[in-house]
Amino acid sequence: MSFFTFLATNSQINDKITQVLATYQIKTDPWTSEDNYIISSRILETWKSNLITKEVLIRILMDGIRPYFSFHKNKYSFARYKKPESEKTIYTRYENIYSALEDSKIEPWKTEKVECASILEWTLSVCQKEIIENNFFLIIPPLVILLEDANPNFKLKSTRCLHHLLSKCDNVFVEKTGIGNLFWEQLIQCLSYHPPSIHVTISIPLLKTSLNNLIMLALLIQPESKSQRVKLYDKIIYAGVFNGMLYSGEQPDMVILFMEYTRKLVNMMGIYATKHIKMLIPLVSSVLENSFQLNHLQQLVEASKALKTIICVCWPRIGPYHPTILKGICFCWLNIQSQKGSLIDEIKKELNYCIKALKKIMGTELDKDFQALMNADPNMISFFKDI
């Protein structure tokens, strides 16, 4: 019997081995290199039957994670599961992001065992639904503490942990425990972390995971009633897309993110998205008509796809907004007509679809507008000739 075989089959220490290997399973951690990730993954896969068992995972949660979060000054309370009396969310754009240095001196998960949060993330990624539901009292407190921490890096790690958790929960469990309301408010606050106060390399993944979690939560909180679920989508689109474009709409990567989620949310809301059409169409058209976007063509790709989705989903109410739509489409076409490339071809294809869809919705009502645009700029003739 090899030395490692002896260690892996010893029930008293194999959970320690698993924790050490799990430390190198999160690629974004500064201590994780490609080599130690590959080696740790290989060992965990080879000795999976010994190192990743139900008993080992529970012991990690109980003895390897919980003690390091138990000294937090705001100890977790199940009273926080209670649904807030007011449905109104109080948004705070910024927290005092780097004000928690003194607190970190008395938080063992930041000092004694800095890899603790990474081990939690890995554990949740491999835990089965049964383990999570039977031991959620070991999981929720660390997640709340990480989410409430002022450092956005810990918020990001917590949102990734939460994604693993929610993907293994059903609506019955969420309703029974009340974690839906608890995490909803925390995640909404995460949507306020924008550049320049937060570096874009942290802000984008934090916003993306928070948006994904909120979308998942909306379905878990309101699995049956779409009209009630749409009210949650309303909050996401206001706090995520509209506020995001207001505060960081000048950042190319942020615009790409917001246009992507505009398309997703409109698709999920369906005809209910018409309530936001007054804000959505000017928002998307402003991205299309900006000539400076030529240096960031992916913005135009996502904006044109978002506009296509809005036109197709909200078509019953699209008529009054067709001048704004035409403005965005025409400016974008004029800016890219002489350009070449795969992204340019994709943008032209999406714009062509948008104008054809608009024509189909409005019929001959658009003919005069098309003629006026071609008279104003002959370059538009090639665009409208096949419509």
Task: Describe the structure concisely for a colleague.
With about 375 residues, the chain is mostly helical.
The average pLDDT is: 87
Gyration radius over CA: 25 Å
Show unreliable segments. Answer: 74-85, 88-104
Provide the domain count.
2
As an assembly, this protein is single chain
Percent helix among the residues? 55-70%
The best one-word shape is elongated
What is the end-to-end distance?
A: 76 Å
Q: Structural class given helices, strands, pairing?
A: mainly alpha
Q: What is the count of β-strands?
A: 0
Q: Outline the biggest β-sheet.
A: none
Order of helices and strands: HHHHHHHHHHHHHHHHHHHHHH
The helix count comes to: 22
What portion of the residues fall into strands of 2 or more residues? under 5%
